[in-house]
Every structure is written in C-alpha cells, then in structure tokens.
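User: Earlier you gave me the apo prediction for this protein. Now I'd like the version with adenosine-5'-diphosphate bound, so I can compare the two side by side. Same sequence as before, with the ligand SMILES added.
Assistant: Got it. Here's the input I'm using:
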Amino acid sequence: MSFLVLDNLQKSFGAVQVVKDFNMSIDKGEFVSFLGPSGCGKTTVLRMIAGFETPSGGTISINGKDQNRLKTNQRNIGMVFQAYALFPNMNVFDNVAFGLKVAGTPKAEIQARVKEMLALIRLEHLADRYPYQMSGGQQQRVALARALAPKPQLLLLDEPLSALDAKIRISLREEIRQIQRQLGITTVFVTHDQEEALSISDRIVVMNAGRADQIGTPSEIYNRPATRFVASFVGTLNMIDATVEDPAARTVRIGDQVIALREMPGSHKAGDPILLALRPEAGSLSSTGDSRLQGEVISSSFLGSVVRTKIAVGANAVSFDTFNAPDLTMPTPGEKVTLNFSSQDLLVVRD
Ligand SMILES: Nc1ncnc2c1ncn2[C@@H]1O[C@H](COP(=O)(O)OP(=O)(O)O)[C@@H](O)[C@H]1O
Ligand SMILES: [Mg+2]
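And here is the structure of the complex with adenosine-5'-diphosphate:
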C-alpha cells in the first residue's frame, strides 16, 4: 500500500486554480521530487500536505489515514524551508530540541536525541553556536536536524538548497539523500533545478501550471519525456517539428527529408503535425545508428568535456554533443553534414 496518497488534489486562491487534479502515490521510504518552474504550485501542494493550507478539493492520506481534518501538529511531519528558518535567539542545541520540548519529551531523552541528531549532521561541536555564527549550509543542516528530531513520519523539503552556492548545494544534496536513506524516511523534495532532481530522486513529478505533467524515475523523465514541457524543462534540448508522411510506414517529414520512426502513435494521420525529441548526446557525425538526417552546421562550441554542435535540419536547429578529445576537429559553420542516430532515440512527445 502506498504511504502518501494525493487523490485529485485541488487548490484555488479566489478565482485562480493553482493546483489541478493532482494525483500521486508515494511508497514508504521513497524520495520523490516535485520539479517545476517558479509559480507552478509546488509549495502549495507541500503546504496542503503539511496542513498549512486547506485543499479546495480532493484528499490527502498518510499511511491509510485521511489527513484533511487533522491540524498541522497532528500530522507528525517534518519540514525544511528555503530560507534558514532557525530561531535566531536560540543556539543549535535549543533549535534542534524545540519540537521535542513542545511535545513534552523528558529532559534526558531530549539530551540524547539532540546529540544523536547533531552526530547525524556532523555538527556535534557547534551545539552552542547561534544561527548568525554559522554558514548557510550549516544552518540548513541544523534545520534538517530540527525537522527530524521528533521522528516525523514524513519529511518535506521546500527548495532547501536554493539559497546556497553551487558547491555547497551539491555536497548538501548528497548528504540529505544519504541521511534520508539511513533513516528510511519518506521524503518529498521540492526544486526548480532539474539536475538536482535527476541526481537525488527515486521518482520525479514534473509540474506544469498546477498539474503533474509526468511522473517517473529520473531516467524515464530524462530519456522518455512525455510532453514538450517536460522535454524542454528537463533538458532534452532538441525539439523537432515534423509532419506525418505515412502512418502505416511510420514515416515523418522534416523539411524535404523523410525518416522512419520506431513507433508511431495510433491516432496520427498523414499531414498531422508531430513533435519529435532527440537528446543532444544521441547524435553523432560518425556513421553509426540506423537513422540519419542531412543538415548544415550553424555553430560549434567548445564546452570543456563536450563540444556542442548546432546544425540546421529543415526549419529546426538540432544540437548534438561530442565528447572532447585532444585531436577532435571542430565542424565549421556552413559545412554540410550527416547527423547519425539510433531510431529508438527519436521520440514522439505530446505537444
Ligand atoms: N496565499 C496565496 N494567495 C494567493 N495566491 C497564492 C497564494 N499562495 C500561492 N499563490 C499563487 O499560487 C501559485 C503557485 O504558487 P506556489 O505554490 O508558491 O508555486 P511554486 O512553489 O511552484 O513556486 C502562484 O501563482 C502564486 O502566486
Ligand atoms: Mg515554492
């Protein structure tokens, strides 16, 4: 049975519906990210789960129990926010102890639990520090320890890393994931950063204007984007506008070239527009793969580990990446080239 179930969840503020028919089942111990641009409703869904907002429709259940009538403090949920929301007038120990004190936990038990939490985040030596005496990364680790101290059944993290600089962000996300695995706590992590979501999640929900566009593993989301939005947001850079040539032969037309797809959705008729996606790492100029497109080089840029070449194919600009090598010759603008790829990498996506 799923641990956290969001069933047809809705939220309107006045006349504006910001969460629409949101459905999601999360297993116990799973790490799920909500990924989407600013304003798509991620925080609103999280706040409904925590009980800070009342849904306009639908239900939330945790461990088989309907949460809609429960108050925030009855849900046993730990939360970490983007801005360091530590109590500025309390030291690290008292911040982490806060939830336990409110719950009336005996003093000796609080001592032991806080010690355990500070060991978990490797800050035992800073128990007496105040928030202003610590770096952003350290403050977020304390916020995590504070959220985990009362042994919540669910952990919600709302863009906890976005105020930190790049290097700390990467090391802290790995640390969060490692702690989450160690405790086996079911976690929902909100982010607008696709690389972050891809790197740490069991599954990702890609959100677009209050809806879940696609739910899947990082590999499914990246390799098989279902919609134009997912393909563009998650980084499948090449979107190719084509028209259906012959549905029975699974062929499409791109400018003056006709090419066969591995699969053609049943509903498509000759002449219909069809949107295709091709990941930049799926193409190459060497003649490998069972599909090819003729094009003309627009530009070629050296990005360090890869060289990204943009070529014009019909009215589309298609980028592809080649790993750097010391003897690599860069394609020159205007050069006529053949882009080779495997037909299974050319996907049909919903527009
Ligand atoms: N209390 C509120 N009253 C009115 N509109 C709100 C309120 N909270 C959020 N919104 C609106 O709902 C939409 C989704 O917001 P939010 O869930 O914060 O998005 P995200 O976290 O994905 O950036 C935004 O357009 C936001 O302006
Ligand atoms: Mg938000």
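For your comparison, keep in mind: The pocket of adenosine-5'-diphosphate (ligand 1) is lined by residues 13, 18, 36, 38-44 (CB under 6 Å).
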